[in-house]
Amino acid sequence: GHRIAVMREGKIQQVGTPLEVYDKPANVFVAQFIGTPPMNFFDAELTDGKLRAPAFALPVPQRFRRVRPGKVRVGIRPENFLEPSKSGRGETARVRGTVEIVEPIGHEAVVHARVGDDPLVAVFDSHNTPRSGESVDFVVELDELHLFDAATEARIDARQ
Q1: CA distances, 67 to each of 72, 138, 149, 159 (Å)
Q2: Distances from the Cα of 159 to the Cαs of 14, 26, 46, 62, 66, in angstroms?
Q3: Which DSSP category does 89 fall into?
Q4: What mean pLDDT do residues 87-104 have?
Q5: Distance in angstroms (rounded) separating the CA atoms of residues 150 and 71
Q6: Fewer beta carbons below 10 Å: N end or C end of the chain?
Q7: Is the four-CA dihedral 21, 122, 155, 144 of positive or negative sign?
Q8: Gap between the Cα atoms of 76 and 41, Å rounded
Q9: How many whole angstroms separate alpha carbon 97 and alpha carbon 134?
């Protein structure tokens, strides 16, 4: 098949090609369901051009500047955290975290860290991984952020 349907408790959450569902998940459930390791989520307040989470603040990407201020869930896929030595394709910001576990899985390593009280999972090249206990700046590709309404958990479209 060329299209998939993601269901939850007997109700269709989203239908589309695998890439459409991965790139633009309709809600938090779909975003968590599609992708390995799953998407990271942080509760934040969108206000004054910033996404303010308890342990960090990120600039609001240009495409979300017209979204109404309020509570949101910020979604970041593990592959959209870059190693500190690498630059992104677009605008980036840094989030400081403490590495807890590093899982080497061949050509990649899954890095489990904590940012304040929130867990963070990133995928790095296995030849350039931090060590457990190390404090690291994770570079966030801002163009790859996903925003979801905190109350409904529905995707916030950049055109709102």
Answers
A1: 11, 25, 11, 7
A2: 20, 15, 15, 11, 7
A3: S
A4: 89
A5: 6
A6: N
A7: negative
A8: 7
A9: 8
pLDDT digits (tens, 9 = 90+) for 106-134: 999 999 999 999 999 999 999 889 999 99
Where residue 127 falls (left for φ over 0; alpha for ψ -120 to 50; beta otherwise) is alpha
Distance in angstroms (rounded) separating the CA atoms of residues 77 and 65: 21
**Phi and psi (nearest 5°) for 71?**
-80, 135
Closest to 134 (Cα-Cα) out of 107, 93, 101:
101
Token output for 102 = 């590093």
Using CA atoms, how far residue 89 sits from 39, 111, 113, 120, in Å, is 20, 21, 23, 21
Does pTM top 0.85 for this prediction? yes
Q: Which two tokens stand for residue 19?
A: 């890439």
- Cα gap 19→95, rounded to integer Å: 27
Contact 80, 141 (CB under 8 A): yes
Report the length, in residues, of the chain. Answer: 160
Distance CA 21, CA 33 (A): 10
Tokens read off for 59? 């600039």
